[in-house]
Each structure stands twice: as C-alpha cells, then as structure tokens.
Amino acid sequence: MLFESSVLINISFHPHLEKDFFIIMANLNVKKGIVKEVGFCMFKIVKKRVLADVSKLMEVEAPLVARKAQPGQFIILRVDDNGERIPLTIADSDKEKGTITIIFQEVGKTTMQLGALEEGDYLSDFVGPLGQAMELPTTGRIIAVGGGVGIAPVYPKVKAFHEAGMEVISIIGARTADLLILEDEMRAVSKELHVCTDDGTKGHHGFVSDILQKFLDDKSQKIDEIIAVGPLPMMRAVSNQTKPYGVKTMVSLNPIMVDGTGMCGCCRVTVGGQTKFTCVDGPVFDAHEVDFVELTRRGQMYLQEEKVAVDKYEHECRSGGGR
To answer: Residue 160 CA to chain centroid, in angstroms?
Structure first.
C-alpha cells in the first residue's frame, strides 16, 4: 500500500535555553518505508501588529506551509505543548520570506494566550496548508463582504481576485470604527470599498447587508459572484438576502475543529443535504446549500466550557501562573 504522510515531532528544550521550542518537521513520502525528505522548521513569530481592540496580526516563519499556501486555506496551531489545536485562516503568505500571516480575535483562552506572545517567541505547532483552495473565477464582477474579524479571511480571496484582473467591490463592517481591520489593505485590492459600522462611527451607519442590497437592486450591472465571511448570523443573512436573486454566493466556515484532516468529524456541516467536513471539503461552501441552523446550534455546544477555560486562564494570569 502506497501513501503519503506528514509527521510532526516536537522536542521541547530546557526553558532557559535561547530557543523555547525547536520543532522537527519531517515531510515523509512513505513508499516502501523510504523517507524522501526531512526538513527542520521553527515557527517563530517575526512580526506582531495590533489591528484593533482585541484583534492582532502575526507573521510566522513557516516556509513549508508558505510554499504551498493558496487563498481559502487555513492552518492549525498550538501555542504550547499543552495547548489545544485551533484553526486560523491564512490571511496572507510570502513564499520568498517563508512566512504565513494570521489574524485572530482574542475571544477564548487559546487566542488570549496567542495574543500574549511577542515577536521572537515560538509556536509549538503550525500545520498547513489545510482545506481546499478557493476556486477563482476567471472573469466577472465580484462582491466581497467581510464582517468583523471575518475581514481577515476575506482579504486573501479579494487579493487573488484582484491579481487575476477581476473587478472586485468590497464591503466591510464592524460594530464600531475601533474594531475595523485591514481597511487600507482591502482598499488597495478593490475597485470600490464600502465601510459600515453598526453605530455609525465610520462610513455607512448600518449593516453590510444595507450596501449589498443596493448592488442587488441595481439591474444595470451584473453580479457574477458574492463571497461573504464573518459571524454566522451575518453570513446567514447574506445567504438569505442573495438567494432570491439567484446570485452565486460563497461563504467560508469556521466551525469547531480538532484534527483538521477529516478523521474526527467535529467540523461536519450539512451542505446540500449531505454531510461535509469543513477541514477537507471546505472551508468555502455554497451559502445557499449550508444548513445554518444546524451549524449555529453546533457552534454553541461548548460555550460554558469555553467560559470556564477563560475564567481559569484569567485567574492564573492575575495570580502570576499564566503568561
């Protein structure tokens, strides 16, 4: 039996050594027991930037991941050897520098731990690229909708559309101006950029769906595809909004996920009446076929456990036991 496998072997050195974590990543092409390639990789945070109140950007050294990364894919990381695995969308990649950019919001214990790290620190695990790359249309007019931290995963898709020479109109929104992220980056790769805030502190006073509706009602200009990324209620609203118009609408999902390779089934979602695994079949799906009711219910299953974890971590930080 012939197969290919990737194996991560973690070795933690003494904490007083200069490097906290030294990761051996063995890319194994296992054919009759022959190891074809072995490389060494250290997942160093080379850049950190605070984007908003609780939103942060990190650029991480991961040359093997950067070499293969495509728009729409994601990584799974662990902050330390005792940490949980969390999926994060690849916000950008640089093959020459060998880096991957991730953007996250500090909403749980692990993202709080991640946000406490600084440039020069190391991550225990950084696996990817995972998931299916988004299929890029070759022609047409695209509308991209990003809500909150969802602006981060929509950005690489818009950038890819722009580089392919397509016309992209972007609509981004947040609860307030202080929570808006990547505004300049989105403007640079969009023909038009529309900004919305729920409280009216910047741009349109209202929701991204308000601006989207104006384009849907404009019969003089055809919309070939819409991509929406953000909180589940926003993506569900956009899906319901566009369905009567028959406009192809894609969403990028981020459900509960563990292994990221299709084995555990935690990230399953019903699409078109069939069970799909977000980690291997997605994360991008046809919005009009996603069962958002089921997806929302599954996403709320561990809210109490998440709260307990956050409370414990914050207590440890106050008592000097956390980072």
So the answer is: 15
Please tell me whether residues 149 and 225 are part of one structural domain. Answer: yes
Rounded distance, CA 198 to CA 176, Å? 6
- The verdict on 112 and 149 lying in the same domain is no
pLDDT in tens, 294-317: 988 888 887 788 888 877 877 778
Based on the fold, state whether residues 39 and 152 are members of the same structural domain.
no
- Does one domain contain both 66 and 106? yes
CA distance 75 to 210: 33
Residues 159, 102, single domain; the answer is: no
The token duo for 82 is: 């005792």
Domain hosting residue 168, numbered range: 137-240
pLDDT band at 33 (very low <50, low <70, confident <90, very high): very low
Is there a single domain that holds both residue 81 and residue 173? no
Residue 26 has pLDDT above 90, yes or no: no
Domain boundary among 130, 148, 179: 130
What letter does residue 2 receive in the DSSP assignment? -
pTM for the model: 0.79
Q: How many domains does the chain have?
A: 3
pLDDT at 258: 85
Backbone angles phi, psi at 206, to 5 degrees: 155, -155
**CATH code of the domain covering residue 28:** 2.40.30.10
Reduce the secondary structure of 195-264 to three states and give it as a string: EEECCCCCCEECCHHHHHHHHHHCCCCCCCEEEEECCHHHHHHHHHHHHHHCCCEEEECCCCCCCCCCCC
pLDDT digits (tens, 9 = 90+) for 39-68: 445 699 999 999 887 889 999 999 999 999
Tokens at residue 36, please?
């074809």
Q: Judge whether 248 lies within some domain.
A: no
Which pLDDT score, from 0 to 100, does residue 322 have? 58
Q: What are phi and psi of 304, to 5 degrees?
A: -65, -45
